[in-house]
From TrEMBL:
The chain crosses the membrane at residues 932-955. Signal peptide: none annotated. Keywords: Disulfide bond, Glycoprotein, Membrane, Repeat, Signal, Transmembrane, Transmembrane helix. InterPro entries: SRCR, SRCR-like_dom_sf. Pfam families: SRCR. It is a single-pass membrane protein. One of its GO terms (cellular component) is membrane. PROSITE patterns: SRCR_1, SRCR_2. This is SRCR domain-containing protein. The keyword Nucleus does not apply. Residues 966-985 are annotated as: Disordered. Residues 1-97, 114-215, 231-330, 347-448, 464-565, 582-682, 696-801, 809-913 form the SRCR domain. It is found in: Membrane.
């Protein structure tokens, strides 16, 4: 746990339903070696203190005084003390060597050794094999699950769960392609034992490199050696089913099916890394019979054993191979039409007319069973309904009175809930499988739906249900309206519409939109809705736009169906990662980094549009931290840019959600990876709970909003006021971004009085502008009760932008859409950008923020008196200084906002490249409105010189003609404009002087540079108030 890779971390061991740590008393390299071998690594590098290298654990300390010889199969096989006398400060950690860093052949790597490269874990990746001193790849021609099984077995994994293209899932390799046309049966010891074309013989490229995904388990070993007691499944149609075979003293043998039951099958499946067993069967009935020895007979497992060898059994048998045992395990990845994977204690309603009513069934150890109605009441029913996502229960009843009775086991009896429990399994009951009931006493419930105020009929208009599916989470969509259930037409129906339906039924999300006639069955009766247009955020389907109730042009062959994710979690990936999981990448520690979210088998990033401290807090709490310290742009924070899909945009959270997918968001985006969102999470400290040193806050001044106030920083357990010597907008912008706002409006506001108190003060903060948080700047702490008393000036006051749309830009004027004066939004009012040194790099940021590929040129207006109503106030952003790489103009350094500056020294305009999209724009010199790039390839030198001379002559002639024509333009005022101070008549004033694009306003350089500019004369613009 908490290591920087899967090969290192704090050691934790699983026992009786919980994970616990291991004490470091007597812990040495032999103990570490056993752990690393058990996890599939070849050896251990170090045995360390977890508190020193990683982090301390919590909960139980399960093992102490370990003494391993180094040859044990599992840590539990080592000698250890029954009780621990340790604290978590003594938790142990290990660093394992990885299979990828093997030594060359001279150091002992045998030909035929395999490894998996470039996967997200040690159980997946591109297949590479070692031969004659080199690692090489394997071609995917004829490669199938049997070949993958051999590789996974060779690496110590129990089985293979997938064959994939390395190019699509991981990365293509380099170097030799060593094997092609593999033909494994699945029971070979090594890949080299399989038939193949011959070493280095192939007709492939690296685009055909193959990858595999192995199932994981607690018992894995290096190489081809299997420990006694290992199990495998043979001759099934998938890795999760087959004849059971057990390994003993160098050979595989079968297990007799005498006394064979679901508990025995469950142990086998869990030993192989599957969550549970579906069925215990005779191999002869479902698969094929084995040959060779029969090792186990009369197996009797409780179901909690770690391996089949731990169960009671006879080592001799009176069986024939016609009695070989087989199992069906719950697959790690299940198809939509296959059985669902549920956790023990999950509940469902069966046999009702809708998803909110039916016979109660509970899931336990791989199968569903009923609940007896002894003591069954409304409190018990309420817990069931809430567990299923409904707000409450309407009735608790006997299933026999309203629904069909069940079959199979009766799992719970004498259930007594208070009504506040999270799951039915949390309530008091007699115990699993302990009852005195028959199925005529099965319990049932009717839950209330998510829509309140039912009509007389009891079902409100707009209620939805799923019909004719194999479970309550899928089926044909039906909606209730004016006393009737009717279907929904599939015209324009998409995943957003399905999401609203699934949410309305209490499921977390939708995983599929299907044709009801293909997947389920056509409906009958009215078709009530057509041309639905949901955003995915509506409370009910009736809230979405549609053609109108009963208005459609469809037949029942167009009835739509949906498949919702189950209430337990979204569909897991091979590695078990549920959709909606989050992680932080690129940070220097586990509590910071670029936000990535998991969806349908891969990780993607989140765009920082609308990204704020509330959204960051949801991410941090989802990861187990208390809250967020800062919401950031990942690239600017140094976390780097992502490479895969951008999954979410415009995320808006209240801060109370339990995961990011519960927030409002858009799946369509207009972002690139320079806009990836990042966070810094709060790590609890022992002195101040969740407040970490370096945190900042704004202390309200009277009735001021939370976006402005006196600045304080948390240092050594105390909030200290920050004084203003040397303070500027660089620090203010950093503080606002750290607090989740987009930027600062102002700082050191004149006329605002404040007097922060503390035992010390922060006399000076010096920032370069490259820091992510204020604590990264140079901070000077001195003694003193306040800034005033310590003669350190006054307190720093910071005012942050508080609206999500603040900082939006547009181009205004009569120019084309891609050209105009830059206007910027502040609190609902469009204002100007004031800048006497407006650079192309500044324009680049504005153009990219607007979706263009870059800036073509920038210019300034010199006619401020025509800027709207001279007496009206409008906001202005002063002196932005951009590097050109920022995603928004507000991310650039600037001199703050003003309501008084009328941009009398110049306001800014830009002409963007007409192409939309993220193209790399040509960086032109300052003020060059139009450049000419000539690419000459394979032309004789004399021709090149001749063409260059002609071009220079053309440019000079056009430049003179343009300047002549420009002076003949009629521009208000009617007097022809002069080229600023250089040729102004003696009686002309500066008021009627217009500047060329990027041109100087006179001075010694004016004459020498004037030919470089293409004059563009500016007219007045009015700045509208929204």
């Amino acid at each position: 746990m908490n290591g920087s890779s899967s090969a290192e971390g704090r050691v934790e061991v699983y026992f009786q339903g919980e994970w616990g740590t291991v004490c470091d008393d007597l812990f040495d390299i032999q103990d570490a070696t056993v752990i690393c071998h058990q996890l599939g690594f070849p050896s251990a590098l170090r045995a360390v203190s977890a508190a020193t290298e990683f982090s301390m654990g919590s909960g139980a300390i399960l093992l102490d005084d370990l003494e391993c010889s180094g040859d044990e199969s599992t840590l539990a096989d080592c000698s250890h003390a029954r009780w621990s006398n340790c604290e978590h400060s003594e938790d142990v950690g290990v660093v394992c060597s990885t299979s990828a860093t093997a030594a060359p052949e001279v150091s002992g790597i045998p030909d035929g050794r395999v490894r998996l490269v470039d996967g997200s874990s040690s159980s997946e990746g591109r297949v590479e094999v070692f031969y004659q001193g080199n690692w090489g790849t394997v071609c995917d021609d004829a490669f199938d699950i049997q070949d993958a099984t051999v590789i996974c077995h060779q690496l110590g994994f129990p089985s293979a769960v997938g064959v994939v293209s390395a190019f699509s899932e991981f990365a293509i390799g380099s170097g030799p392609i060593l094997l092609d046309n593999l033909g494994c049966y699945g029971d070979e010891s090594t890949l080299a034992d399989c038939s193949h074309t011959g070493w280095t013989a192939h007709d492939c490229s690296h685009l055909e490199d193959v990858g595999v995904i192995c199932s994981t388990s607690a018992t894995v070993t290096e190489g081809s050696e299997m420990p006694d007691g290992s199990v495998r499944l043979v001759d099934g149609n998938s890795p999760s089913e087959g004849r059971v075979e057990v390994y003993y003293r160098g050979q595989w043998g079968t297990v007799c099916d005498d006394l064979w039951d679901i508990q025995d099958a469950t142990v086998v499946c869990r030993q192989l890394g599957f969550p549970s067993a579906l069925r215990a069967v005779s191999a002869e009935d479902e698969f094929t019979i084995g040959d060779g020895p029969i090792f186990f007979d009369d197996v009797e497992c409780v179901g909690d054993e770690a391996t089949l060898a731990d169960c009671r059994h006879l080592d001799w048998d009176n069986c024939a191979h016609s009695e070989d045992a087989g199992v069906f395990c719950v697959p790690l990845v299940m198809a939509t039409e296959g059985p669902d994977v549920f956790e023990d204690g999950s509940v469902r309603l069966v046999g009702g007319d809708s998803s909110h009513e039916g016979r109660v069934e509970v899931y336990y150890r791989g199968q569903w069973g009923t609940v007896c109605d002894d003591l069954w009441d409304i409190d018990d029913a309420t817990v069931v309904c809430r567990q299923l996502g409904f707000p409450s229960a309407i009735r608790a009843l006997s299933a026999a009175d309203e629904f069909p009775v069940g079959e199979g086991p009766i799992f719970l009896d004498d259930v007594e809930c208070s009504g506040d429990e999270s799951t039915l399994a949390d309530c008091s009951h007699r115990g699993w499988n302990d009852n005195n009931c028959g199925h005529s006493e099965d319990a049932g419930v009717i839950c209330s739906t998510t829509t309140a105020d039912p009509e007389i009929a009891g079902i409100p208009d707009g209620s939805v249900r799923l019909v004719d599916g194999s479970s309550s989470s899928e089926g044909r969509v039906e909606v209730f309206y004016q006393g009737n259930w009717g279907t929904v037409c599939d015209d324009a129906f998409d995943i957003q519409d399905a999401t609203v339906i699934c949410h309305q039924l209490g499921f977390p999300s939708a995983v599929g939109v299907v044709s009801a006639v293909t997947k389920f069955a056509m409906g009958s009766g009215p078709i009530l809705l057509d041309n639905l247009g949901c955003y995915g955020e509506e409370s009910t389907l009736a809230d979405c736009s549609h053609a109108g109730w009963t208005v459609h042009n469809c037949e029942h062959s167009e009835d739509v169906g949906v498949i919702c994710s189950s209430s337990a979690s979204a569909a897991p990936e091979v590695s078990g990662v549920p959709d909606g999981s989050v992680r932080l990448e690129g940070g220097s520690s586990a509590h910071e980094g670029r936000v990535e979210v998991y969806y349908r088998g891969s990780w993607g990033t989140v765009c920082d549009d609308s990204w704020d401290i509330n959204a960051a807090s949801v991410v941090c709490r989802q990861l187990g931290f208390t809250s967020a310290e800062a919401a950031l742009n990942s690239q600017e924070a140094g976390f780097g840019m992502g490479e895969r899909r951008i999954l979410l945009d415009e995320v808006e959270c209240s801060g109370e959600e339990s995961n990011l997918y519960e927030c409002r968001y858009k799946e369509d985006h207009n972002c690139n990876h320079s806009e990836d969102a990042g966070v810094v999470c709060i790590v609890p400290t022992s002195t101040q709970g969740s407040i970490v040193s370096g945190s900042v806050r704004l202390v309200s001044l009277g009735n001021s909003p939370d976006s402005e106030g006196r600045l304080e920083m948390f240092v050594d357990g105390e909030w200290l006021p920050v004084c203003n010597p040397g303070w500027d907008m660089t620090g203010a912008n950093m503080v606002c971004r750290q607090l989740g706002f987009s930027s600062a409006i102002n700082t050191n506001i004149a006329g605002v009085n404040s007097n922060g108190q503390g035992s010390s003060i922060i006399n000076r903060v010096s920032c370069t502008g490259s820091e992510v948080q204020l604590k990264d700047c140079k901070v000077e702490v001195v003694q003193g009760s306040s800034c005033h008393d310590a003669s350190a000036g006054s307190d720093v006051i910071v005012q942050c932008l508080k609206h999500r749309s603040d900082g939006d830009v547009k181009l205004a004027g009569s120019e084309p859409l891609f050209k105009g004066e830059v206007q910027i939004l502040l609190e609902g009012v469009w204002g100007a950008v004031c800048d006497t040194d407006w650079q192309l790099s500044d324009g680049e940021v504005v153009c990219r923020q607007l979706g263009y590929s870059g800036a073509k040129s920038v210019y300034q207006s010199q006619n401020p008196r025509d800027f709207g109503n001279e007496d009206s106030a409008f906001p202005t952003l002063r002196q932005p200084m951009c590097s050109g790489m920022e995603s928004k103009i507000m991310s650039c350094k600037n001199s703050g906002w003003s309501q008084d500056d009328k941009c009398e020294k110049g306001r800014s305009g830009v002409e963007c490249n007409q192409q939309k999209g993220l193209l790399i724009s040509t960086k032109q010199g300052q003020g060059l409105a139009n450049g000419l790039m000539i690419t000459v390839i394979a032309i004789p030198a004399a021709s090149v010189l001749f063409i260059i001379v002609i071009i220079i002559l053309i440019i000079k002639v056009r430049g003179q003609r343009t300047r002549t024509q420009s002076h003949q333009m009629t521009i208000s005022p009617s007097q022809p404009p002069c080229q600023c101070s250089k040729d102004r008549p003696d009686n002309a004033s500066d008021d009627n002087c217009y500047a060329a694009v990027g041109g100087p306003m006179g001075g010694p350089m004016a004459e020498s540079t004037i030919d470089m500019f293409n004059p563009v004369y500016e007219t007045s613009l009015n700045w509208p108030r929204l």
